TrEMBL record:
<protein>
    <recommendedName>
        <fullName>UspA domain-containing protein</fullName>
    </recommendedName>
</protein>
<dbReference type="Pfam" id="PF00582">
    <property type="entry name" value="Usp"/>
</dbReference>
<comment type="similarity">
    <text>Belongs to the universal stress protein A family.</text>
</comment>
<dbReference type="InterPro" id="IPR006015">
    <property type="entry name" value="Universal_stress_UspA"/>
</dbReference>
<feature type="domain" description="UspA">
    <location>
        <begin position="174"/>
        <end position="302"/>
    </location>
</feature>
<feature type="region of interest" description="Disordered">
    <location>
        <begin position="1"/>
        <end position="20"/>
    </location>
</feature>
<feature type="domain" description="UspA">
    <location>
        <begin position="25"/>
        <end position="155"/>
    </location>
</feature>
<dbReference type="InterPro" id="IPR006016">
    <property type="entry name" value="UspA"/>
</dbReference>
Length: 305
């Protein structure tokens, strides 16, 4: 069950193209809710997507007392008020609608809405208790990145301060292991539609505390292999897209990630881990570490079927 209100700013035009992408944005009246809205706006700014601002409320269990329906209506009315506050963060010129839906699970409510509307992404913020500009998964975002059938975009804490962010580059974490899920096809489509540059990223680390000559030789060989992989991958990308390659190197994976430069207009695409189910998002161990270190928004892509 859901109620929705369609709205556009005074100077916006409602998209008529059925191919226009749609974003499902999970919203609560919290700082992380605002982070998710601002990330959705940044994505819509470069893709032309319409925004569904969704608040999920739980059904009130029947306890035999009168007035249950009225109580549920008050809860949904409160959610609608919250959505109005969230919609105020959407600038003029963007098409959006607000939706209150009822479900036992916030994450399930979002995924159901995304599937029903053919959304290209679910967008959420993390939690408000992590480091500024870093990612911290909450209950909803954690469930989404381990079960969603559509890509999940995560906003770092404090992203709401970047109200004028214009995405200009998608960094793709290219897997080095054979058979690992590759987010490049998704990222290439996103870059093509949004006119983004692509940065192909490979992580190299020895995961060793030693820094002797043997270790350095091994790491040098690993870097050469990673660069060869990236150059091969670059040759497979459409020639009209601007592509850069970067090998992040460090004694440990965390050190390699700490050495990475991140721009305020970056977004990162990562694939799902091998333990995930087909056609579902599953945040693997390497992706989790990227999420912990990057200051950019992250999109986790479902594992290929």
């Amino acid at each position: 069950m859901s109620t929705e209100t369609t709205a556009t700013r005074a100077d916006a035009e409602t998209p008529a193209d059925p191919a226009t992408p749609r974003l499902t944005v999970g919203y609560l009246a919290t700082p992380s809710g605002a982070d998710g809205v601002v990330l959705a706006v940044a994505l819509a700014r470069v893709t032309g997507a319409t925004i569904d601002l969704v608040c999920v409320v739980r059904p009130t269990p029947y306890d035999g007392q009168p007035g249950l329906a009225q109580y549920q209506q008050r809860i949904e009315a409160q959610a609608a008020d919250w959505l109005s506050e969230g919609a105020a963060l959407i600038p003029a010129g963007f098409s959006y609608r607000t939706v209150v839906t009822v479900n036992e699970s916030f994450a399930e409510g979002l995924t159901s809405h995304a599937i029903d509307t053919g959304a290209t992404m679910i967008v959420v913020g993390g939690t408000g208790d992590g480091l500024l500009s870093r990612h911290t998964l909450g209950t909803v975002s954690n469930e989404l990145v381990h079960s969603s059938p559509v890509p999940v975009a995560l906003a770092p804490r404090g992203y709401a301060d970047r109200v004028d962010a214009v995405l200009d580059m998608v960094t793709v974490a290219v897997p080095v292991k054979p058979g690992a899920d590759n987010p490049l096809p998704f990222a290439e489509k996103l870059a093509e539609r949004a006119k983004l540059d692509i940065r192909l990223l490979s992580l190299v680390s020895l995961e060793s505390p030693f820094d002797d000559d043997g270790s350095r030789e091994v790491r040098t060989a690993q870097i050469a292999v990673a660069r060869e992989l990236l150059e091969k991958t670059r040759s497979e990308v459409k020639p009209e897209l601007e592509v850069d390659v970067l090998v992040a190197d460090g004694t440990t994976l965390d050190e390699a990630l700490a050495n990475l430069p991140w721009d305020t207009n970056d977004i990162v695409a990562i694939g799902s881990g091998h333990l995930g189910s087909p056609n579902r998002v599953f945040l693997g161990s390497t992706a989790s570490r990227i999420l912990r270190w990057t200051t950019a928004p992250v999109i986790v892509i479902p594992k290929r079927g």
